[in-house]
Design goal:
The structure holds two protein chains of two kinds. Chain A is of the alpha/beta class. Chain A is 35% helix and 27% strand. Chain A has nine helices and nine strands. In chain A, strands 5-6-7-3-8-9 form a six-stranded mixed β-sheet, with helices on both faces. Chain A has a three-stranded antiparallel β-sheet with strand order 2-1-4, covered by helices on one side. In chain A, strand 6, helix 6 and strand 7 form a beta-alpha-beta unit. In chain A, helix 2 runs parallel beside helix 5. Chain B is mainly α. Chain B has one domain: ABC transporter involved in vitamin B12 uptake, BtuC (Orthogonal Bundle), CATH 1.10.3470. Chain B is 76% helix and 3% strand. Chain B contains eleven helices and two strands; from the N terminus they run ααααββααααααα. In chain B, helix 9 runs parallel beside helix 11. The longest helix of chain B is centred in the N-terminal third of the chain and has 31 residues. Classes of the chains: A alpha/beta, B mainly alpha. Chain A: Belongs to the ABC transporter superfamily. Chain A: It comes from Actinomadura rudentiformis. Chain A: One of its GO terms (molecular function) is ATP binding. Chain A: This is ABC transporter ATP-binding protein.
Chain lengths: 227, 287
């Protein structure tokens, strides 16, 4: 196994008296695509926020080899700024660290659908286009691991397929590691090689997607879908 | 005719002062979401400080820049107190800025006393189309044009300016790309202090100010800024110039004591109009 780009050990996140994450441990290796599935309120968002440094954990560690970038749930555009400006702001952390900022032209090569939208206000785009911008903005941070919080939520199946294709290609061609948080377990298992099942703040199962999908008790119990 | 021209120019100059104050309100609101009621205080501090620096022997230019810098520092301090604690909402921050304005009264009276003060501006007049126009008025108009152009370019063309707008429009996304949203808000408060201070040093030679002049300034600045929903500098400028000219005409042809009433009535009318329009839009959207 190659070195992990993301290593979460014994992570605890609390909001007041409520425990959102209870000693969560997981790892993602370089170039790996890992799914994180679980019902609503399982603690997925808390895990994302802790990895991104947006909430302070009560215990445990998050170790990153390189940068993490987030494609946030709900796309989270800067609505009044152009697509190009939205992308450029994705390089904020890099610029602060003094490394040379990636040019938005790079994103238009990787995600050619965005090139003709570059002057439009992000707030005026369709959901699928905004999700594409959210991808591009995250890539501007030159991440070692891309965290995708709900890839397919609210998007048409065709759009989801396009985005999944981009994700697969970025992973295969550029060795980008991916953590995919996804309500649609079938899609997640289809894209990723390994998966973690999170429920009530704890990792309840982990393993290769093929195995997890076979063990129907896990899928039925934790994902609420029948294979 | 020359009376009218004189009223127009002095109205525009005073309106420009209000516009500078409003631009500070807009900057702070755009970036931090806070309605900063201490904005008038920044102008008072800078106006009074400029007078003291001049009496202490500092030359013109240096004294004004020093006073504006001091106002920037006061702005930063206000931002720290009002928004520095994580989790302070915009409404709580609003009340804190209001409170800081009153605390500042005490400090200002201790330092400068409670009487109105003024300092000499750019002296002399020039004759334009038969009317005598004060050079200070022209200076204020030119300075305002410069500030608004620079501010517009800053927010629309520079990386930092776009980031400041972004931090306000979507704090979660801003934090996800690594921005420190609280620090961005503080930068906006400091900039708001500089803008308010600029209004103060330019207005003081035209209207002597005292510790409680912030009420007059914030009333007019807020009335102007609310025209653009506290977010659009261009509309705030248009609002401020309209107010300045309307008040100069009221003072010139009717009675100077009606001036502030004009601002209040205009502000109320705009807020009622905007509230009714918003409700209509909400109902439209709910359909």
């Amino acid at each position: 196994m190659s070195d992990p780009v993301l290593e979460v050990t014994g992570l605890v996140v609390r909001y007041g008296n409520a425990t959102a994450l209870d000693h969560v441990t997981l790892h993602v290796s370089a170039g790996e695509m890992v799914a994180l599935v679980g019902p609503n309120g399982a603690g997925k968002s808390s895990l994302v926020n802790a990895i991104m440094g947006l909430v302070r954990p009560a215990g445990g560690t998050v170790r990153l080899d390189g940068r993490a970038a987030l494609v946030p749930e709900g796309r989270q555009m800067f609505p009044d700024l152009s697509v190009d400006d939205n992308l450029a702001l994705g390089a904020w952390r890099r610029r602060r660290e003094g490394s040379s900022a990636r040019d938005t032209a790079w994103v238009y090569e990787v995600l050619p659908e965005l090139a003709r939208l570059r002057r439009q206000k992000a707030g005026s785009l369709s959901g699928g286009q905004q999700q594409m911008v959210a991808f591009g903005r995250a890539l501007m941070g030159d991440p070692a691991v891309l965290i995708v919080d709900e890839l397919s939520l609210g998007l048409a199946p065709l759009v989801t397929t396009t985005l999944a294709g981009h994700l697969r290609r970025l992973n295969a061609e550029r060795g980008l590691a991916v953590v995919l948080i996804e309500q649609n377990a079938r899609l997640a298992f289809d894209l990723c090689t390994r998966a973690y099942v999170l429920e009530a703040g704890r990792i309840r199962a982990e393993g290769p997607c093929a195995e997890l999908a076979e063990s129907s008790d896990v899928v039925a119990a934790y994902l609420g879908v029948t294979p | 005719m020359s009376d009218l021209l004189q009223y127009l120019v002095s109205g525009l100059a005073v309106g420009c002062g209000f516009a500078l104050l409003a631009s500070g309100l807009v900057t702070v609101h755009r970036v931090s979401g806070t309605v900063n009621f201490a904005q008038g205080m920044f102008a008072v501090v800078a106006g009074l400080a400029a007078g003291s620096f001049l009496s202490a022997g500092l030359p013109h230019g240096v004294a004004e820049v020093a006073a504006v810098t001091a106002a920037g520092a006061v702005g930063l301090l206000t931002g720290l107190v009002a928004t520095g604690k994580p989790g302070t909402g915009p409404r709580a921050a609003l009340i804190i800025t209001l409170g800081l304005g009153f605390v500042a009264y005490a400090v200002e009276i201790m330092v400068w006393g409670d009487g109105p003060r003024s300092h000499p501006g750019l002296g002399g007049t020039i004759q334009v189309a038969g009317a005598y126009v004060q050079r200070q008025h022209l200076l204020v108009i030119a300075a305002t044009a410069l500030v608004f152009t620079a501010l517009g370019l800053f927010f629309s063309r520079t990386y930092l300016g776009k980031a400041l707008s972004a931090a306000a429009s979507n704090p979660y996304a801003a934090r996800a790309v690594g921005m420190n949203v609280t620090r961005m808000g503080l930068a906006a408060f400091a900039l708001g202090g500089v803008l308010g201070g600029t209004a103060g040093v330019l207005l003081t030679p035209m209207l002597p100010i005292s510790f409680n002049s912030d009420v007059l300034l914030i009333t007019n600045g807020f009335a102007a800024a609310i025209l653009g929903g506290l977010n659009r500098p261009g509309l705030a400028l248009a609002g401020a110039l309209t107010l300045g000219v309307a008040e100069a005409l009221v003072a010139g042809y009717l009675d100077a004591s009606y001036q502030t009433v004009v601002a209040l009535v205009l502000m109320l009318a705009i807020m009622i109009w905007q509230a009714s329009r918003r409700t209509a839009l909400d109902m439209e959207a709910a359909r």
